[in-house]
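Troubleshooting entry. Yesterday's outputs looked truncated, so today I'm pasting the complete records for two proteins to confirm everything comes through intact. If either block looks cut off, that's the bug. Protein one:
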Amino acid sequence: MGVTIHYTATLKSPALLPELFDEIEELSDEAGWDLTHIGPDEVRMPDATEVQAEGFLLSMHEQMEPVNLIFDSNRQMINFAYLLGSSTGDSEQDVQNFEIVEMDAEGEIKRVTSNDSVDSQVMARWASTKTQFAGPEAHIGLCKLLQYLSGKYFKTIEVEDEGEYWQSGEAETLILKMNFLDSVMDDLELYLKTSSRLEIKNSDDMLEELKKFWSIVSRKKK
C-alpha cells in the first residue's frame, strides 16, 4: 500500500547506454544517491527468448524504493524483480498463485484478477518505485528525472503515476493522496492490533479483516 510510480521505457539506441550510465553516475555523485550496477546478465524472457540485461538500481532516498534503469539488448527496460526470478528459474512459480483483488468503497470485492489474466511478458518490462514513505518532494524528483531521461535517451516512455503528478504537474493531488494513505496505514496498524479476531490463520481471514477495516475508513471519509 502506498503511492507508487509504474514505468517502462525503450532507449533510442543501444549506443546511448554507456552515455546514460555515465550521466547517472555523475548525477548520483552530485546528489549523494546510491547506485548499484546490475549485469550484464543473460536473461530468459517469458516468451523463451534470451536477452542480455544491464543497468543500474538508483536509490534517490532512503525511504523510497530503488529506481529501475535496467535495459536489455533490444533497448527495452527490464524489471529487476523479474531478473532475479528468471536467473533462479523460479519466476513462473512466483506468479503461480498471483491474484489482484480490488475492493470498492464499501469493502466489497469488485474484481479479482488471477495470474491467468496477467501477461508475464508485459510484467517483465514494467518497473515500479514506491515513493509513499519518502514524501512528495522525492516523488516529484523521480518524475522530473524520468522526464529528463525521456527527452535525452528514451524513444518511448509510459508512466502510470498513482499520485497523478506525472499527468498533471500539480502537487496538490499528490500531497492529498499521500496524506490520506499515511492516515489509512496508521489506522490499519491500530485496527489490526485491536481487532477482535485473535488469530488470522490464512489469506481469507486477512481479506475479511481488510474488508471490515475499509468499511470503517469509507465511513470516516463521508
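Protein two, checking that the full record survives here as well:
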Amino acid sequence: MAYGSIENIEVRNNNVKIDVKVKVEEKKNEEQSNETIEHLPNSEIRRSQRNQIIGCLFALLSRGLFTTNNFLINQFSPSVPDLFLLRSIFILLIYLTVCYFRGYSLLPGNNRRKLMILLQGLTSSLTCLLCLAAVTFMPVPDALCIVFSAPVPTIILAAIFLKDRINFSNVVTCLLLVTGVILVCRPPFLFHSSSYKAIMEDEKYKNYTIGLILTLIATGCGAIMNVVISECSSVPSPVLLTWSALMGLVASLIYCLASPTSVLVTPASWDQVTPTMAALYIGLSISGLLAFTTTTRSLQLACPSLVSTLGCTELVVAFIVQSLITGQSPNILSCLGGGLIVMGVIILAFQEKIECLRTRLQRSVASCWRKNDPESQSLLR
C-alpha cells in the first residue's frame, strides 16, 4: 500500500512538472515571438500607432484628392498628356527647390538605397502613365477591376521584401477586396452583359489585349512602388517626390509627343489655350501635387498593405459621388461590393487586435481540450 501511494505521488509530481514545463515553454515561445517583433531590422521597424493613424489619414486625403481630380478630368475633358506634363513640372520645381534650401542630397545612402530611390521614381511615374494609357484600349470598369486589386501583390511583395507576416487577416482582406472590386466594377469580361459583345466589337477596343497588358504592368508597378517607398521611410519625402517628378517628366514628354491632342509641346497651338483652360490645368496640377505628396508620406508612415487597401475606398467614394451627381442610386451589387471593400479595410486596420483575439481563442480551446482529454485525466488520477 505504502509503495503504491508513493508511486502515485511520484506520478502526480511528474505530471505537475510536465505541466509546469509546458507552460514555461509556451511562455518562452511567446517571449521569443514578441522579441522578433520588437527587434526588427531597419526596413521592418515596428511603426508606432501614431504614425499608423497619421499615415492612414494621409492615404484617405490622397484618395479624396485623386477622386476629385478624376471627376474634374471627366467633367471638363482636358488633355491628359498635357496635364501629366504640367503636373510633373510643378512637382519637380517645388520639391527640387525644397531639397536645395534644406540641403538634402538627391541620392543619399548606400548603393542599395540609391537604387530604391530611383526605382520608386520609375515605378510611380509608370503606374500613373500606364493607367492613363490603358483606359484608351479597354473599358474603364475592366481597367479599374485590375488596378484596384493592387493590395494583393502589395501584401505578397511586403511579405517577401519587408518580411511582413501573411496572416489570416491578410488572406481574408484580399478575398474581400477582390470580390468587392469585381461587384462594384462588374467588368463585362466576367459578367458578360448584353453590351459586352458590342463593346468588344467597337473599333475603339480592338487592341483590348494591349490595354490588359498595360493594366497588369501598372498594377505590378504600383505594388512595387508601395513596398519600395516603405523601404525608403528614412529618406526625406521631397527627395522621393523629386525623382518621381523627374521620371514623370520624361514619360510625359514621350506621351505628349506621341499624342495628337497635346497642345503644350507644339508652340503653334499655344494660342488655343484660354484663361479658363490655364486655370483648370493649374488647379488640377496643384491638386495632383498634393495627392502625390500625401500618398508618398502615407507610405512612409503606415504599412504599405494598409495604404494600398485604403486606396480601394476611392472606388466606393467615386460611386457615391457619381450617384449624388446623377441622382441615381447604385444597384444592390455595387452596394454589396462597397460593403465588402470597407469591411476588408476595417479588418486590415485592426489586424493586430484580430490576430491577438484569434491567438487567445486558440489557446483557450487548446487548454480546454487538454483538461478534457481522457489520457491526461488518467495520468492525474
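Both blocks look complete. Sanity check on protein two: Residues 237 and 297 are 6 Å apart (CA to CA).
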